[in-house]
Amino acid sequence: MLRSAIVGSTGYAGLELTRLLLRHPRVVPPLLLSRESQASEDQERRELFSPVDGTMIPIHPFSWDLLKKHDIELLFLATPHEVSRAWVPEALERGLRVVDLSGAWRLQNPDYRAVYKFSDEGAAADAVLSRAVFGMPELHREQIRDAQLIANPGCYPTAVILALMPLLRDGLIDLDHGIISDSKSGVTGAGKKPSQGTHFAEVSENFRAYGVFTHRHTGEILEQLELTPEQMTFSVHLLPIRRGILSSIYFHLRQKAGNAEIEASLRRFHAGNCFIRIFHPPRLPELQHVAYTNFCDVGWTLSPEGKRVMMVCCIDNLGKGAAGQAVQNMNVMYGWDETEGLIG
Amino acid sequence: MLRSAIVGSTGYAGLELTRLLLRHPRVVPPLLLSRESQASEDQERRELFSPVDGTMIPIHPFSWDLLKKHDIELLFLATPHEVSRAWVPEALERGLRVVDLSGAWRLQNPDYRAVYKFSDEGAAADAVLSRAVFGMPELHREQIRDAQLIANPGCYPTAVILALMPLLRDGLIDLDHGIISDSKSGVTGAGKKPSQGTHFAEVSENFRAYGVFTHRHTGEILEQLELTPEQMTFSVHLLPIRRGILSSIYFHLRQKAGNAEIEASLRRFHAGNCFIRIFHPPRLPELQHVAYTNFCDVGWTLSPEGKRVMMVCCIDNLGKGAAGQAVQNMNVMYGWDETEGLIG
Amino acid sequence: MLRSAIVGSTGYAGLELTRLLLRHPRVVPPLLLSRESQASEDQERRELFSPVDGTMIPIHPFSWDLLKKHDIELLFLATPHEVSRAWVPEALERGLRVVDLSGAWRLQNPDYRAVYKFSDEGAAADAVLSRAVFGMPELHREQIRDAQLIANPGCYPTAVILALMPLLRDGLIDLDHGIISDSKSGVTGAGKKPSQGTHFAEVSENFRAYGVFTHRHTGEILEQLELTPEQMTFSVHLLPIRRGILSSIYFHLRQKAGNAEIEASLRRFHAGNCFIRIFHPPRLPELQHVAYTNFCDVGWTLSPEGKRVMMVCCIDNLGKGAAGQAVQNMNVMYGWDETEGLIG
Amino acid sequence: MLRSAIVGSTGYAGLELTRLLLRHPRVVPPLLLSRESQASEDQERRELFSPVDGTMIPIHPFSWDLLKKHDIELLFLATPHEVSRAWVPEALERGLRVVDLSGAWRLQNPDYRAVYKFSDEGAAADAVLSRAVFGMPELHREQIRDAQLIANPGCYPTAVILALMPLLRDGLIDLDHGIISDSKSGVTGAGKKPSQGTHFAEVSENFRAYGVFTHRHTGEILEQLELTPEQMTFSVHLLPIRRGILSSIYFHLRQKAGNAEIEASLRRFHAGNCFIRIFHPPRLPELQHVAYTNFCDVGWTLSPEGKRVMMVCCIDNLGKGAAGQAVQNMNVMYGWDETEGLIG
Questions:
Q1: Which residues of D are catalytic?
Q2: C-alpha to C-alpha distance for C271 and C298, rounded to whole angstroms
Q3: Do residues D181 and D247 make contact, with C-beta atoms less than 8 angstroms apart?
Q4: CA–CA–CA angle D45, D48, D53 (5° rounding)
Q5: Which residues in chain A touch residue C240, judged by CB atoms under 8 angstroms apart?
């Protein structure tokens, strides 16, 4: 049984990860850690308190000694990216394997990384970065198996990359024409900190775009898909729901094609990718079927003249978009069945 | 045409009041005032910008001179109660009529007022208080007509008082048994300031009680209905909706009765109260029919043995529970038709 | 005071129209009509019952005689399009002016009309159609003034047309590249009839696309904007909200431009169009600011290289997208101020 | 590994049960059965399709032969109560163990059963009924272990009974005064069939009471708690959420008491009941902490004078209120750890 710890377990992704690990047959209940000594009310995960003896799962202040004392082997970081930048080097040095849910180590291209304004750019950080593997098993399964540091992908990029990669690899998309991803996310994607923009009365019965052309997840999409900024228009919107991301993706085919060619491309690439579900037209994915799962559902519609395509892909932003993918990565890292603890 | 000003127009009640006054046939567009010089983005009510010339309605920093310069006659305060306590004395001295939407001047009983911890209790405040009229036209229409200071009622008390007063006056309710009001409110009742408790992801798909036995609106209910604290159990809950308050009120009848006697009591008291709609059993009020109106809907169900009653009453907390009632009070104060600007 | 009647007042658009007409200073309360004798519970609009005397507004079974008896001059049809097709010819013959909220008379191009499968196509219908004016005052104000039959626009086309027309007229958009409108609507747009797709538990916490490339509103957009089907990709999604439509529109500029040129084009076209609000970048419209209004808000973001544009436009689908625009058309038809009854 | 089947797997409770069984370590994936041959689209549970080989879980038309062929030992019925009444006798005869989620076999008292208007009342049905065990492990664990037929409790009664039973057993509640349960449920409790009352636009931003004094779950509460109809006022309301039931329960104590006595009573009764979480005042349960779990959370507030109590209890209506409790019953029936498959 694997011993793991979670830093940042009071956020939405950290809570979801705790839930998934409690249910996982190959890990002991995770050690929950807080970056700071906090108010007593936050010292326990009350949503999760153990039914066995009526006590709640405690949250300990973080210390390296505590990790050692509990023989922790795998460290999950559900922390702000600055924290991940600061802690990962020491964690690696101490021999821990790390799955980092933040954006700290996802981007190799310094141009794309600029948006994060990391204060520690330099040779030392580059050395860590060179060991980081972008944690999307469907793309990098082999490297993940042996990696010490997994950069768990962002929620928006996950579905967009999984939907587009097959057709891009097969050269079906007219890149001169460009690709548009009109993406929509639930509110847990914005984190737990209260703000005017996440106030219930400002979100409910409302809908709005934000971060058009500028969202910091853009770089991940470009880097993984090997596109230029001009080839990809990426916009994001806030949905009045708790969980889920759906992207409507528009592009032109290089030449007229039928549904069969699109489907063949998707199925070929995703053969063996057990969490990718491909829908036959005219059925399109919807958020309710991926909520509380690790699935990524992909469908599309072809225009009457056979040139224009609208793809629809969706995930649970806390599932495949964060905690679920982190568990999937763990399963790959330890050679377990990739679906362990992630079904049902 | 009456000239009025609103202080606190950026909150939910202030915005609703602005909307209602813009639509009112007997007032000029209100002067919008802010208590402090704020960030430029808040300097205009963008939801409301004037369609006539495409400009937005400006929000001016408050000053007594500005009120004078604009010949303001009526001042609406949609401000925290401390602000209302501080400003009302001078406003009265300057000859302004005031409708105060806060809890500053609602309670004559010092025991009930204690919950507000006013720092200015004393002879001067008592003098102001003695001139304040509890602004519920259905109860105090005559005094409102001539009042200089209207204490606009709280949202929770409004519906509870309007539903119970008729039966209490007629002695139908068994007070030894006590009354329970299980009240539920939408999120705009909690104000616009972001907090963990109003974060979308903590409210949506959630429901919770708060403030049981201790809510500061309790005193208003007791004072107006002339009940003792032991006779009234008042609890409040947060609904995952934007607007509306519904209270389920339980009591025993002093003696067995039929629906006809209950209905007669309600209709007798509310004859001429044009915003009170009384429902025949088995139909019960629901929030959607009062949303964006000034109506207070009242219905009830009698138990099979004819002793127990569940009443249901509801209002829009920003309408009859705040801005709508403020406009209704204005209509009474100036001798206009009570429904002016409040229909449709 | 104008005398008008509404057929179909129990649907969402019909209810909103009733509310707006009750508030309008130049019309008497509308006569509410039902197409069929229905169950007694539906015989009155209980949301709206008159506060003056406590009675509800009755709904009468439709008859031409009743219209005559009440001296009705203007007939609003909030009916299915088949009903509008059947009734309008007689209404015109009887000298009534008609504002039809259905899709019955909006499309002159028979190819676009085919989607409705009208059973009465032919010379008689063509004669009626030739007298119909597409009821968008911002485009056809002069013809509306004198029209006997107004085809009130569909909800989706309204905002898309108002946003794109200025830039298309000015030749700013690269039509070879095509335009994409990713549109999202609240549930009242789907009508009041219960279905699996509008069940609360299938909509709440969900989001999905439907009707991609095939929505029957597509023809209206193409016809008014004079585009070919290949030039316009139109997709629609269901938002878990009650009211509102927001469209994210993507296109390339014919040549690189700045925000100033886009804004100039919009302001030039919409000068005098009092319900169109144009936002400066980086501010973008959001649904909450148009809810319960007749405004259409338009904004945009320009890509860093100055070639790609994402426009955002939104309306209340029951306001400017249906009942509000119907009242605006009435105001134009009778020479009243276009904002009469539509402000606040 | 246990072999089980579910009839009615397309409803909300049936889907949740399928999910839980897929995740359960001691059962093979359940056989999904439909009562009738249905449209092809319904022939598979698409939310659940197997990630292993990309196929969906098929739904077979029901037949006894199919059960036999698959060696089914345990049958879950998530069917309307009439269907359960018709099928259970044969199932028992064929030696199957049955967990019935409907109200068919929950009530021994014929007066309470009358509300269901069963057409098959008589000696044969009585014989079946005498073998049915009310499936609430916290009350009837021993009988459940050996039962062939489990009547899985209703969603509303589950939390109300679990909250009140300890204090009633200990004689703390003043029964002359009566008990009030003001209960609120999410929409999945109303089933999947579309109706006006579950239309998104009629539920969202709305709240309403229904079934006051008459809800058919009342009998279960009275029978299990051994109360008379006059001692219990039970009202239900519809919350604009998908999942969850919260009840606010009001009563007087027989004599003044402190929080310690109430807590002691609850903890004594529920010692060993691993899904009951008892909250210290002033913390009260809220729905979000039980959503997607099998927990029942219980808390309370005592009035200042120590006589009146408001208890708050809540569950997930599809979890502990239906499918979760069914799995818990299965765990008890087969001697497994009661939490198996229900944690995380």
A1: 155
A2: 14
A3: yes
A4: 105
A5: 239-241
Q: pLDDT band for position B179 (50/70/90)?
A: very high
Neighbours of chain D (3+ CB pairs under 8 A): A, B, C
Taking only the tens place, the pLDDT of each residue in A59-85 is 888 999 999 999 999 999 999 999 999
Q: Answer yes or no: is pLDDT of B42 > 60.
A: no
What is the spatial distance between Cα A313 and Cα A325, in angstroms, rounded to a whole number? Answer: 16
Reported residue count of chain D is 344
State whether residue A10 is helix, strand or coil: coil
Contacts of D22 (CB under 8 A, 6+ apart): A343, A344, D29, D30, D48
Cβ pair D69, D46 in contact under 8 A: no
CATH 3.40.50.720 range(s) for chain D read 4-153+321-333
Provide, as residue numbers in chain D, all residues whose Cβ is less than 8 Å from the Cβ of A49.
277
Query: Between chains, do D204 and C187 touch, taking CB under 8 Å as contact?
Result: yes
Name the CATH superfamily for B156-318: Dihydrodipicolinate Reductase; domain 2 (3.30.360.10)
Pairing relationship of beta strands C74-77 and B232-238 according to DSSP bridges: unpaired
Neighboring chain C residues of B277 at a CB cutoff of 8 Å: 49, 51, 54
| Nearest CA-CA distance, residue D120 and chain A, Å | 38
Asked if residues A50 and A79 have their Cβ atoms less than 8 Å apart, the reply is no
The answer to whether the CB atoms of B204 and A240 lie below 8 A apart is yes
CATH class of D4-153+321-333: alpha beta
Is A47 in Cβ contact with D289 (below 8 Å)? yes
* A155 classed as catalytic: yes
Assembly ipTM: 0.94
For D272, left (φ over 0), alpha (ψ -120 to 50), or beta? left
Taking residue B169's Cβ as centre, other Cβ atoms within 10 Å add up to: 14
Average pLDDT, stretch D87-101?
Answer: 97
Report which residue type is found at B185: S
Whether chain B has a CB inside 8 Å of the CB on C19: the answer is yes
Q: Which of A115, A176, A181, A182 is the best substitution to test chain C (most C C-beta atoms within 10 A)?
A: A182
* CA distance to A14, A165, A267, A283, D298, per residue, from A307 (Å): 43, 19, 20, 19, 59
* Residue B180 forms contact with D (CB below 8 Å): yes
Residue reference for tokens 């898909």: A225
Under 8 Å CB-to-CB from C340, ≥6 apart: which residues?
C24, C25, C26, C331
For chains B and D, count residue pairs whose Cβ atoms are closer than 8 Å: 135
List Cβ neighbours of D300 (8 Å cut-off, separation of 6 or more): D259, D262, D281, D284, D309, D310, D311, D312
CATH no. of D156-317: 3.30.360.10
**Chain B contact for D204 (CB, 8 A cutoff):** yes
Q: How far is CA A168 from CA A102, A172, A223, A267, D314, in A?
A: 27, 6, 13, 14, 49
Model confidence pLDDT, tens digit, residues D39-74: 444 455 555 544 444 556 788 889 999 999 999 999
What is the model's pLDDT at position D48? 56
- Beta strand ranges found along A4-115 (DSSP E): 4-7, 31-34, 44-45, 57-61, 74-77, 97-100
Tell me the average pLDDT across C75-90: 96
CA–CA separation, C161 vs A326, rounded Å?
Answer: 45
Question: In which residue ranges of chain B is CATH 3.30.360.10 found?
Answer: 156-318
CA A35 to mean position of chain CA atoms: 22
**CATH 3.30.360.10 residue window(s) in chain D:** 156-317
A73: Cβ contacts below 8 Å, ≥ 6 apart: A2, A3, A4, A96, A97
Amino acid at C36: E
User: D53: helix, coil or strand?
Assistant: coil
Helices (H) and strands (E) in chain C, counts: 11, 15
